[in-house]
Amino acid sequence: MADLELKSDEEKAEELKAWWRANGTSVIAGIALTVGGMFGWNQWKEHQLTQSEGGSKLFSQLSSEGADSAAVLKQINDDYGSTVYASLAALTVAKASCEAGEAEKCIEQLRTASNSSQESVASVAKLRLARALVSYGKLDEAQTILSQKMPAAYQSIITELNGDIFFAKKEFSKAREAYDRAILSSGGQNIQILKMKRDDLGDHLKSGA
Predict the structure, then answer these.
(1) Phi-psi region of 5 (alpha: psi -120 to 50; beta: other; left: phi over 0)
(2) Which of 50, 51, 94, 201 has its CA 20 to 30 A from that of 183?
(3) Shared-domain flag, residues 199 and 162
(4) Residue 105 phi, psi (nearest 5)
(5) How confident is the model at residue 181 (pLDDT cuts 50, 70, 90)?
(6) pLDDT band at 189 (very low <50, low <70, confident <90, very high)
(7) What is the predicted pLDDT for the residue at 133?
(8) What are the DSSP calls for 132-195, one per residue?
(9) Count of Cβ atoms closer than 10 Å to residue 53 Cβ
(10) 192 lies in a domain?
């Protein structure tokens, strides 16, 4: 069509008509697909926003005094199970359950949260799950959790928890090594507690246990 300017207006009109007859359908289809795609994308974004707002409102109820946490958790899982609020709700209920001494419920909710699609939430849940498992004597399962891939930022905590596991298993030399590594990788955070744990091994190590 670049040579249309060299032709008469009548010739140009005829060629444009011919071109439109040949290509008009595909042009219209292309426009329809583009508009339809935009409409679909906007619909999806609106759906995501609605999901987020609904999940957020329900999640905030978990911390409300007198709230039925079991009912709220069920509704979040039923209606917003694909959002991060389901994992955050599981973490919240797990914390309350652990504080109440409800070991099985605590561990169950932490397992749920550890499967979150959000890596940061999943990692926090795994660390809390490992700590709970150590507290309740499920040492081998805790070690399995800690062997899973997690961000390097959590390395000091992972090493510390491994030290706790070795201590619980009475493998005191391995516990001391783990605590020393945790201190080195801690970046100064939690260092006093780590040193206390390491120093508390003194008598066990002297006894040759």
Answers:
(1) alpha
(2) 94
(3) yes
(4) -65, -40
(5) very high
(6) confident
(7) 95
(8) HHHHTT-HHHHHHHHTS---GGGHHHHHHHHHHHHHHTT-HHHHHHHHHHHHHHSTTTTHHHHH
(9) 11
(10) yes
The mean pLDDT value for 29-53 works out to 51
CA–CA dist 103, 114 (Å, integer): 16
Listed as own residue / partner, the contacts of 171-177 with beta carbons closer than 8 Å and 24 or more positions apart are: 172/201, 172/204, 172/205, 172/209, 173/205, 175/201, 176/201, 176/205
* 105 token code pair: 């419920």
Tell me, yes or no, whether 97 and 158 share the same domain: no
Domain edge (last residue) among 113, 128, 143: 128
Domain assignment of residue 169, given as a range: 151-209
Helix 119-135 to helix 139-146 angle, to the nearest 10 degrees? 160
Separation between Cα atoms, residue 164 and residue 190, nearest integer Å: 15
Residue closest to 176 by CA, chosen among 153, 206, 147: 206
Do residues 111 and 129 lie in contact, with contact meaning Cβ atoms separated by under 8 Å? yes
Measure the CA dihedral 114/115/121/127, to 10°.
20
Mean predicted confidence (pLDDT) in 71-82:
85
Element (H, E) at 13: helix 9-61
Quick check: is 90 in a domain? yes
DSSP code at position 69: H
